[in-house]
Amino acid sequence: MGLQGWARGMSWVVALLVVVMGAAGPVVAAAPLAGREAVAAVSVAEAPDTASALVAARRQGTPVLVADLTTETRLVRAKPDGAMVAELTTVPTRVNRGGAWTNVDTTLAKRPDGMVAPRTAVTELAFSGGG
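-> structure tokens emitted (131 positions)
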């Protein structure tokens, strides 16, 4: 199998992984035309692990976020050239709520119980609504 055959095979593997893992982004596959193999065009912003992110970044030519390396203070992206780039912050900028990352939002809002609390914070914190 030549390099082109391997690349076509990998494009189908990546497309299948995206569909199975539920990654966001369109998956487009063309039906074989006049004896030519179908080519899948996959665009993803995030992949579940480093290996998947590196394959996706190289395939689509844009950086891909590595989900299993994401923390409250770190984002890691795989680049198309195979390099990994980390963005670090000194304070938490995101919070994992129910398996999904949400940006920290310290805007105070009144809760149904009358307490006042930040909309999204790393720790549970609430103030009396008064009285």
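The chain has two helices and ten strands.
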